[in-house]
Amino acid sequence: MKxxxxxxxxxxxxxxxxxxxxxxxxxLYSAQIFVNEPHxxxxxxxxxxxxxxxxxxxxxxxxxxxxKILQPLFSVDTFVFISLTLLLVLSVFKKEVGIYATGFxxxxxxxSLFVHEKFYTLNNVYFFIFLYAVCLMLGTIYTPRGFYFPxxxxxFYVLPLAFSLFRLKKQSLLLILKIVxxxxxxxxxxxxxxxxxNLLVLNMSALEWITTKFPPAYFxxxxxxxxxxxxxxxLVLFSTLIxxxxxxxxxxxxxxxxxxxxxxxxxxxxxxxxxxxxRIGLVELIIIIVISLLYYIRLKTNYLKHALVxxxxxxxxxxxxxxxxxxxxxxxxxxxxxxxxxxxxxxENPVAGAGYHQQRAALEYQDKKMTDVTRPADAxxxxxxxxxxxxxxxxxxxxGLLPLLILLAGLVWYAFKxxxxxxxxxxxxxxxxxLIEEPLYAQEGITRxxxxxxxxxxxxxxxxPVKVHRLRNLFSKGEPA
Length: 481
Fold this sequence. Notes:
The chain has about 475 residues and is mainly alpha-helical. It has 20 helices and three strands. It has helices at about 1-30, 40-65, 75-90, 95-115, 125-140, 155-165, 170-200, 205-210, 220, 230-250, 260-275, 280-300, 305-320, 325-330, 335-350, 360-370, 390-395, 400-415, 420-435, 445-460, and strands at about 120, 465-470, 480. It has a three-stranded antiparallel sheet. Helix 15 (about 335-350) packs parallel to helix 17 (about 390-395). The radius of gyration is 23 Å and the shape is globular. It starts with a helix and ends with a strand.
């Protein structure tokens, strides 16, 4: 019993204090104190401050508990460790924060290069990413601005290069995953408390909120962190959930997570996507759990084939029962209109497309031509297609889809070649996400995608020999790390 409590104390604290905070807010609401619309912003700032303090406590606690992993403590590798952890945590906030965090991380990666005077051979899979980024740059040739280097594509080059400038120990990488996992659990708990405050202010019931489409629901959940996009936030939380399963499966002697902590995190994830009304989030959460359970069965038992059959049958039943709902998931009012405009634009411009980052102009042009396409009255202005594959064809024509397919094929190939649970599941959730969003079109999506991708690739390489090159002898053939 004591061992269980020791391993699960963090989850128990969350399960204790989250309901306690909710109850305290309800008491204030009943007494008509503080819980009202004028105090919403103040309450959000209080929660943001509390989140920052709790995150710092979690970080310091883990560092002190596992201080032998980061020996020597005051070294350039420790600063790389800190900056990478910060980059991952801040990925749930707005893009400007992510940009500054990326710069901070790259700075310490460069410091590692100059202190250790060595760098490591890039993994070949990164060249698929570079190819895609170069194709994006070439797509600027026929834009109104003319040929230029797209600022947003810096991340495609910078992060892989930065990860080649250092090598953290495997346990250091696992410790990063654990710290981020626990901080994201706090993030979801804080978001649920903030949602509860807004729920009382709006005088709604929780059941009414979850079962009724309430736009914009995500505004009342994530605004305390000054970023509310449900899908992009969910991608960070799910990448962290995958990391949690990996830590549990890995069973490292020093850095691991208990099953109880995983269950708690899953419960927080489920509650989060429900109050965010993130439909794709709910689907992806189910997929992550099912695949992870199958992976666990494969590791622990001989009943994988039986479990696969049951999973396939259950999936078929769910899809058949909710066929209409799955259709609406991809083609709601806004996405259906954007889909129609995009398809017709591609038909009229099959070879060249509109050019890099010209989706909005292309869709607005097509919207003026097609007066029979109607958008919901409360729909936001036309911005992009909400589908990565369609979006690339609108920008670069049908041939322009090829670089994206090559990129995805290369990443999936590497994920299976390296037998990386992290990368395989990560690529799956991103492939699904690309059906309803364009993570490689917006800076928020690019930063999140590249940060976790590079980290997972770094982890997959950590047990393998990698060629190291000395700054003083750049033209050598390299030596094993």
